[in-house]
Amino acid sequence: MKISGTREWAVATVNCCDGCPHNCRYCYAHYDAVVHKKMSQAEWLAGRVNQEMVSQPQPLYPGQVMFPSHHDITVDNLSACLVVLEKLLAAGNRVLIVTKPSLVCVEALCDRFRNFQDKIIFRFTITAANDSLLRFWEPGAPSYQERRKALQYAQLHGFQTSVSVEPMLDSEHLVAMIDDLEPYVSHSIWLGKMNKIQRRVVCDSPEVKEEVELIVAAQSDQRILELYDRLKINRLIRWKESIKRVVGLKLVGEAGLDV
User: Fold this and answer.
1) What is the reported pLDDT for 36?
2) Cα distance between residue 166 and residue 10, in whole Å
3) Closest residue by Cα to residue 150 from 179, 181, 127, 174
4) Average pLDDT over every residue of 68-90
5) Do 77 and 46 form a contact (C-beta atoms < 8 A)?
6) What is the pTM assigned to this prediction?
7) CB of 25 within 8 A of CB of 135?
8) What end-to-end distance do the CA atoms of the chain give, in Å?
9) Neighbouring residues of 55: CB distance < 8 A, sequence distance ≥ 6
10) pLDDT, tens digit, for every residue of 146-205?
C-alpha cells in the first residue's frame, strides 16, 4: 500500500477550522476546498472555527495523530485549537503538532501542555529562510525569524522539536538553513517536494510562472539526487515519499511510522 502525505507521519489527522489566512499558493487543502468544494476565496481566508469539530470528543487513536492538517494554528483560532488538543492529549494520544508557527501561539501551547511533553512533537513548517520567497509563496504566514524563534522556544521548554521543509522553496540555500536550525531540532528535519504544482498553483501572472519554473527546475531528479548525496549522512534528515521515489529509498508500508 502506498503511504504518502500526512500518512507518513500520522495514522489520523484532526482539524477544527474551515480555511486558513496564510493563503499559501501551493496548499492542497485550499485547492480541495476552493476548487472541489466551491468555498469562496474570502471564506477560505477567514478561517472560520468549526464549532462542531471543536465540541466532538476525541478517541484514543492507534498511533500518532496529527493536528492540524487542513488549516494552521493562529491567534484567531488558538482557543479552539487548545480545546481540541487538550481532548486529544487527555485521551492518551501521541500528538504531532504541525504549524507555520507564530511565537505567541507556540508560547501558549508550551504553557498549556507542559505536562504532556512526552506526548507531543512540534513539527514547524519552515520552507525557506528568504522572507521575500516566504511572502510570495506563503503571504499570510510568519517570517523566518519568527518561526526560528518559535522553534528555539519549544526546544528550550523541553518539547521534542522537528522541522518540515515541504515544499523546499529555496533549494539553493537549503543546507545553510538546515545548519541554522539544526541546533534547535531534537527529532527530525523532513524534506519534500512541492507536489502537483501545475494543478494547485494558479499561474495568473508572469511572476508566478517564473517562480513555478524555478521550483520545477530545483526539484528535478538530478537536483534531488545531488541534494540527497549531500545530506544523506545527516542523522536528522528524513525524506518524504516524493523524494524517496527519486533516490530509490524503500517506501514505508504502514501509516504513522514517522521515519
Assistant:
1) 80
2) 16
3) 181
4) 98
5) no
6) 0.97
7) no
8) 16
9) none
10) 999 999 999 999 999 999 999 999 999 999 999 999 999 999 999 999 999 999 999 999
Domain limits of the chain?
5-247
The CA angle 5-245-134, to the nearest 5 degrees, is 55
| Cα distance between residue 85 and residue 133, in whole Å | 31
CATH fit for domain 5-247, picks 3.40.640.10, 2.130.10.10, 3.80.30.10, 3.30.420.10: 3.80.30.10
C-alpha cell of 91? Answer: 485521551
Whether 15 and 69 have beta carbons less than 8 Å apart is answered as yes
Q: What is the pLDDT of residues 207-223, one digit of tens each?
A: 999 999 999 999 999 99
The letter for the amino acid at 6 is T
At residue 37 the predicted structure's pLDDT band, cuts being 50, 70 and 90, is confident
**Beta strands at 12-13 and 65-67: parallel, antiparallel or unpaired:** parallel
Say if residue 245 is exposed, middle or buried (CB neighbours under 10 Å; 0-12, 13-18, 19+).
Answer: middle
Q: What's the CA angle centered on 132, arms 176 and 208, to 5 degrees?
A: 115
Residue 2 pLDDT grade (very low, low, confident, very high; cuts 50, 70, 90): confident
